[in-house]
Structures are given as C-alpha cells and as structure tokens.
Amino acid sequence: MSLRSRLAITAVLVVLVVSMIPGCGGGGNGGAPPIIVPDTGTITGRVVKADNPAASLPGSRITVSSGQSAVADAQGDFTILNVPVGAGTVTLTIESISDPTYSTQRVSGIGIAKDETTAVTVAVLPIALGQPYTILINPSVAAIDRNGEIQFAATVQGAGGYLNVQPTWYLTGSIGVIDVNGKFTGLTVGTATVVATIGSISDQANVTVTASRPPQITTMLVNPTSLPSSGGTVTVTTAVNDGDGLKNNGVVAEIVDPLNNVTTQVLPLVSGTSTKDGTFRANVTIDPNTIRQSQEDATRALTYSIRVTAEDNGGAKTTSDFQDVTVAGIDEPGPPPGL
Q1: Using CA atoms, how far apart are residues 128 and 159, in angstroms rounded to an integer?
Q2: DSSP secondary structure code for residue 306 in this structure
Q3: pLDDT given at position 88
Q4: What angle do CA 311, 317, 322 make, to 5 degrees?
Q5: How far is the C-alpha of 265 from the C-alpha of 267, rounded, in Å?
Q6: Alpha-helical regions (H) of 162-228
Q7: Which residues pair with 327 in a beta bridge?
Q8: Where is average pLDDT lowest: 85-89, 153-157, 193-197?
Q9: What is the tens place of the pLDDT at every residue in 83-115?
Q10: How far from 167 is each of 205, 224, 249, 320, CA to CA, in Å?
Q11: Mean per-residue pLDDT for 230-249?
Q12: Ramachandran angles phi, psi of 63, nearest 5°
C-alpha cells in the first residue's frame, strides 16, 4: 500500500473517532445541557374596592412573587402570563396607584396549574378603615356535589367593631371557582381550601366536592310546634343544596293529619344564590275543624306531622324526618247550672 493510501485511511479513522466523541462533530450542541422550559400558567383577575366590590380600581399595579407585573385596565382587569406553576406558592402584591385612598393588598398562597388560567378578584381595603383585627369564614367546613354552589361569608372586625367590607376570596385547589362575593361553584371532585384575606389577616375553610348526590336537606324547621284548639298557621323552612339544581316547584311540604290524610304545599325559594343552594319557606294552615266530628274529638289534642321532600332536575329525591305539630283540645263544658 502506498504512503498516500495509508495517510488517507488514517484520516478517515480519525474523523470517525472524533465524530463519536460526545460534543464533537457537526450537529451537536457542544456539550451544553438541554434547555429546560419551566411549566407556567396564567393569572387573570380584577382589582375592586373592599367596601364596594362593584367598583373597580383601574390603574392598580399587580406584581407576582416571580417578578411579572401588570397594570389593571379601565375596568380594573388584569392578565399576567408565564407564571411558574406551584400549589399555593404564588403571592400577589396589589398597589392602588390611581386612588391613593386605598392601601396595598398582598394575597399569598395562590395555586397555579400548568397551561391553566387562575382567576382571582382582589379586594383592596380603604386606608381610612384601618387594619382589621379578625376575620371569620362561615361555614368553616362544607361539602357539595359537582356543579353545586355554596355561599361562604366572612365576618370582619376592626378597632371600631364590625366592618362592612368584602375580603379577597380564592382557592388553593383547582376543584372549582369562587366569585368576589364568596359564592363557590364545585366543578371537579376533590378537596380544596377556601381562603378569605383582607389587610394582613386571613381565614380558611375546607370544601369538598363529591360526585352527584340526591338533594341535601341541611335544615328543616317548623314553627311553632303547638297551636291552640282553633288551629292556626305554622311556618315551614328548609335549606337545600343540590348540584343538579332543584326542579321547578321541587321543594314540597307534606302535611299528614291525624286521620293520615296527606296534603302538600310547595315551598318557594326565599333566599340564597339559586335553586342549587337556597332556603325555601311557606306558611301552612292547620284547621282541626275538618277532623273533629264529635265532642270527644274536640276534647283531645290532635297531632299533625310535617316533612319536606326535595327533588332535583335529575329526578333524585330526598325526604326529611317528620316534625310534629300539636293542636290543643277543647276543654269539656262543665255541668249545667243547678245540677
């Protein structure tokens, strides 16, 4: 073999060996570590006045603990992109720039999920009210079924007593949404923590979302539970929660008289957010004269039993226990005069 051939073969072998060494040869990255793109999500929301949640605070500066910031638009709305994900790791700092009569509000513990949007309405406290001392959420523990609603309320106290303000409401889990007034809607089965914060204080409540269930009758009251011999009116009140929503005229009182005759009366919604979470009430008239057929009937007390049945849009029903109402008997007449 000629010298020129041996040199050519040697050169080819060198090229092959070099190309097999990591970081060498064409098309490599020079041995640099791969670029890791962090998982991120988005925060959107609105800045409002704690003493008037219907009024926004446009021009407020919102800063995330990871460094991003935004300025609220004319409606008080803001959006911050590329916020690193974390379960309850994000802190927002809100500065009311356009209205110096409102303080700076810090909201800690917000959770961010990958490629998802977290919405939070931030309520900023007026400086004139001073810093509140205590905040208490009611209820502190709640369970609803999927698509159900429940209203949380927060009692806030300051140096001068109770403050008529709305805190910032948010969740540490992604099982639902909560609005500026504390109404929670469950979207996914699971558990989460509801947080209400105002000034430098906060309180928490636990909420669980379950699979669809029959209507939940949480309270049922009859008042009064005793009537005079002439009868009268009692008020039937019940609180019902249901994720599917209660059907139209789906909450009914059943009245069973002493002869086991049953009558019904619809209980209309009188308070609450909707037929998914509300209080229903109606007055029920009890007339014992339809039962008393003799003097003996008139002298004995009569017992009426009342219960509530709730039916949702899916056809599921729940019935409460009976509560009794006693109608007093009429005293027997005394003997005729002179006997």
Answers
A1: 12
A2: E
A3: 65
A4: 100
A5: 6
A6: none
A7: 227, 302
A8: 85-89
A9: 888 766 678 899 988 899 999 999 888 878 888
A10: 14, 38, 35, 35
A11: 92
A12: -120, 135
Domain assignment of residue 317, given as a range: 216-327
Give the CATH number for residue 260: 2.60.40.10
209 CB-near residues (< 8 Å, 6+ apart): 143, 144, 145, 146, 148, 175, 176, 186, 187, 188, 189, 190, 191, 192
**CA nearest neighbour of 43 among 67, 7, 25, 74:** 67
User: Same domain for 268 and 223?
Assistant: yes
| Burial zone of 277 (CB within 10 Å; 0-12 exposed, 13-18 middle, 19+ buried) | buried
The pLDDT > 90 percentage for the chain reads 54
Averaged pLDDT, 29-39: 66
Please tell me the total count of domains within the chain.
2
Q: Which helix (H) or strand (E) holds 15?
A: helix 3-20
- CA-CA-CA-CA torsion sign (181, 182, 183, 189): positive
Q: Which two tokens stand for residue 173?
A: 């889990």
- Asked if residue 177 is part of any domain, the answer here is yes
The Cα 187–Cα 185 span in angstroms is: 6
Tell me how long the chain is: 339
How much is the average pLDDT of 312-319? 90
Q: CA 108, 111, 115, 116: dihedral to nearest 10 degrees?
A: -100
For residues 307 and 325, the answer to whether their CB atoms sit within 8 Å is: no
d(CA 241, CA 275): 8
Compute the distance between CA of residue 13 and CA of residue 32 in angstroms, rounded to an integer.
Answer: 26
Distance CA 273, CA 249 (A): 16
Beta pairing partners, 168: 197
Largest CA-CA distance found in the chain, in angstroms, rounded = 159
Are residues 224 and 293 located together in one domain of the fold? yes
